[in-house]
C-alpha cells in the first residue's frame, strides 16, 4: 500500500496537517521527530511552505513507507522501528509529532516513554488526528474495522500516562479534529 499511500490522502487530512503545523509554528531551526510518518505528509507540507526543519527524523514500522518517504525527501533521516515498544533514545527534539497514526499504537506507556526520551526541555509531544474520536470510531465501524482498544485513548488515559512520564501542560481538543499536546518543562 505504500506506493499509493500519499496520493490517497484526503483534502481533510492534508488541511488538518497544515493547520497543525501552523499551530505549532514549526520553523527552520526546529528539530522534529515524526512518529508513524508513513510516506511523509508532514514533510511534504513543510517543504511546500519552505520550512523543512534543520533536523527531521521520520519513524515508521513499515520499511516500504519509509522507502517512499526517502525517495520524496532524501534530506530526511529515517528510522525503521516500532514506537509501540520501548526504544533507545533517537536524540532530542523540539517537537515529537504523531499525526493520524494513534489508532495503530496499543502500548501507550511505550509510546509516551519513547516520546519523553525524545523531547528536549521546552519541547512538545503532540498526538493529532484529522478525525475526532467520534468520527474515527464511526469511520472504523463503516469499514468494518474492529480493534481491542479505542482508536484514540480517552482524555483521562492520555492525562494519566502523560503525567506518569513527566509531561506537563496538557491541552486536549476534540472539536474539528483531535489534538493533544504536552510539554517538557525547561
UniProtKB/TrEMBL annotation:
Per the record, the domain of life is Bacteria
> Sorted alphabetically, which SUPFAM superfamilies does this protein's record hold?
S-adenosyl-L-methionine-dependent methyltransferases
The residues the entry assigns to the signal sequence are: none
> Which sequence ranges form a coiled-coil region, renumbered to this chain?
none
Q: Name one GO molecular function term.
A: S-adenosylmethionine-dependent methyltransferase activity
CDD domains on file: AdoMet_MTases (cd02440)
Q: Which residues form the Methyltransferase type domain?
A: 33-127
Name the InterPro entries for this protein. Methyltransf_11 (IPR013216), SAM-dependent_MTases_sf (IPR029063)
Return the protein name: Methyltransferase type 11 domain-containing protein
Name its species: Paenibacillus oryzae
Amino acid at each position: 500500500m505504500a506506493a499509493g499511500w500519499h496520493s490517497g490522502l484526503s483534502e481533510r487530512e492534508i488541511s488538518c496537517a497544515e493547520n497543525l503545523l501552523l499551530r505549532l509554528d514549526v520553523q527552520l531551526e526546529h528539530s522534529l521527530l515524526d512518529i508513524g510518518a508513513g510516506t511523509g505528509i508532514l514533510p511534504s507540507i513543510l517543504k511546500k511552505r519552505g520550512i523543512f526543519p534543520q533536523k527531521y527524523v521520520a519513524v515508521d514500522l513499515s520499511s516500504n513507507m519509509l522507502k517512499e518517504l526517502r525517495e520524496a525527501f532524501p534530506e530526511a533521516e529515517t528510522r525503521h522501528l516500532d514506537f509501540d515498544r520501548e526504544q533507545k533514545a533517537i536524540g532530542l527534539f523540539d517537537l515529537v509529532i504523531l499525526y493520524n497514526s494513534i489508532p495503530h499504537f496499543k502500548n501507550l506507556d511505550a509510546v509516551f516513554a519513547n516520546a519523553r526520551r525524545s523531547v528536549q526541555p521546552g519541547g512538545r509531544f503532540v498526538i493529532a488526528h484529522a478525525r475526532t474520536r467520534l468520527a474515527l470510531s464511526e469511520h472504523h465501524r463503516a469499514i468494518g474495522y474492529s480493534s481491542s482498544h479505542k482508536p484514540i485513548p480517552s482524555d483521562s488515559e492520555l492525562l494519566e500516562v502523560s503525567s506518569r512520564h513527566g509531561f506537563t501542560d496538557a491541552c486536549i481538543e476534540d472539536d474539528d479534529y483531535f489534538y493533544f499536546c504536552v510539554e517538557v518543562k525547561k
